[in-house]
Design brief:
Order of helices and strands: EEEEHHHHHHHHHHHHHH
Strand content: under 5%
Distance between the termini: 65 Å
Radius of gyration: 23 Å
Shape: elongated
Mean pLDDT: 81
Length: 342
């Protein structure tokens, strides 16, 4: 193919966008008469819309943003995320509103019985989460606020598939929520003080949304929620070891919220729920769960007791057997010096 037939690629952001977001929007203008980009449904981002997004005129940029409503492909989302950083507040609000609609629609596709539709939605939403997390970390204050709101919305929307009876649908929701957990944990670890709190707040929303799923009667739902908690815990521990003091404080608070959300499962009537709770607390690895787990060593069910013992060993690194008294004595001696308990 000759170079002239390929159209021209310009690495410049929309006229209203910040220079920081240039790399996020490499606009490849196609040859005249061809569609710029299209998704599997045949919808796409037209050449006219792409040019409008790069216009110097505010009305043309806003019109182009609104033209992307209902277009569920990655290029449309990338363009809308960039438009969150437009210098005009009207364009910003239009981008946020349009992006909210697109993300909600894609979240609905996570529940599709069509594996291709579900897979495409999962992939596109994960990319959107990463882009929004980048705006939260690097955008200006107005763009950061919009990105935080959109991420909160996505947490609520992506949690619904976690309770679906179809295991593939649960997996799709889990993948998106894990992407949120990992991306925002990175912001908590490496972001500046302005955005660490925002990222931690969104993650706390995620923990609250997962409260019901972690004790759901369906073992598949519990397992999916536990996977998300595991990703959250991994990210929080990284922030504890590699972040600044604000990030470490946010990470400690997040781990505490996670323990609070799960510890009630240890008192559930269902042994499987108690076992799942113990296993999840072991994954979280926070010392604030030790007292509750020691109490579970007296559970009537031997499988629950074994799960609690294993969780205690994972949290503390000690192997003291099944005797609650031995664990209580050790914990009384080490409680005040245990990481995260000071």
């Amino acid at each position: 193919m000759r170079r002239a037939d390929r159209g021209s690629c310009r690495g410049r952001a929309p006229a209203g966008g910040s220079a920081l977001l240039v790399l996020a929007f490499l606009v490849c203008v196609p040859p005249p008469g061809s569609a710029a980009l299209s998704d599997r449904s045949g919808r796409g981002v037209s050449q006219t819309t792409l040019e409008g997004l790069r216009s110097d005129k505010r009305d043309e940029r806003e019109q182009a943003v609104r033209a992307l409503r209902g277009t569920k492909d990655s290029m449309a989302i990338q363009a809308l995320v960039v438009a969150l950083g437009d210098r005009d507040s009207g364009v910003q609000r239009a981008a946020a509103s349009t992006l909210d609609d697109v993300l909600r629609s894609l979240s609905g596709d996570l529940g599709s019985f069509n594996s291709d539709t579900r897979g495409q939605a999962t992939q596109t939403l994960r990319a959107a989460v990463r882009a929004l997390a980048d705006v939260l970390q690097h955008g200006d204050s107005s763009a950061q606020g919009l990105a935080e709101k959109l991420l909160r919305t996505e947490v609520r929307a992506a949690e619904d598939p976690l309770r679906d009876l179809n295991g593939d649908v649960r997996r799709a929701g889990t993948d998106v929520l894990i992407e949120i957990a990992r991306s925002l944990a990175g912001v908590v670890q490496f972001g500046d003080f302005r955005v660490q709190g925002s990222a931690a707040d969104v993650l706390e929303d995620l923990v609250r949304e997962l409260r019901g799923s972690i004790s759901d009667g369906n073992p598949g739902v519990r397992a999916a929620a536990a996977d998300v908690f595991r990703a959250l815990a991994d990210g929080a521990r990284l922030a504890l070891t590699g972040g600044d003091f604000r990030g470490q404080r946010s990470a400690r608070a997040l781990l505490g919220r996670m323990v609070d959300a799960v510890v009630g499962n240890l008192r559930d009537r269902d042994p499987a729920t108690r076992i799942g709770g113990a296993n999840t607390l072991g994954e979280i690895g926070d010392g604030r769960a030790v007292d509750a787990l020691v109490d579970v060593l007296a559970d009537d069910d031997p499988s629950v007791r074994a799960a609690a013992e294993e969780a205690l060993s994972r949290i503390t690194g000690e192997k003291l057997g099944p005797d609650p008294a031995a664990w209580r004595a050790w914990w009384e001696e080490h409680r005040t010096t245990f990481p995260g308990m000071r």
